[in-house]
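In the laboratory, one determines a bound structure by crystallizing the protein with its ligand and collecting diffraction data. In a computational setting the workflow is compressed into a single prediction: the sequence and the ligand go in, and a structural description comes out. We illustrate the idea with FE2/S2 (inorganic) cluster.
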Amino acid sequence: MNRLHIGHLADIEEKGARTFMVEDTEIAVFKLSDGSLHAVENRCPHKGGKLSEGMVCGTSVHCPLHDWKIDLRNGKVHEPDDGCLNTYKTEIDGASGEIYITIAG
Ligand code: FES
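The predicted complex, in structure-token form:
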């Protein structure tokens, strides 16, 4: 398990995302309107659209290519489509606002 520092809470706008690379995987960290953070692989399971460029609505993101909807809390694609993304645990240091994610492996 690797715990990585990826930035500060203030670096991500509400309903926005920040991306970064871990080895050859691009990860997108989204901030929802309730302030919670969710980290997912930045690659739509349909045809690889960059989810960080999609629109956040509630707890889901709409893929910018063909509008699949993906739940950012668990990485699951909403029906009638089907699929799942890798998700990563996020932590916020309450005092400093620094953000960490945990990568298995
Ligand atoms: S690539 Fe995301 S919906 Fe097609």
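The mean pLDDT is 95. Keep in mind that any predicted model is a hypothesis to be tested, not a measurement.
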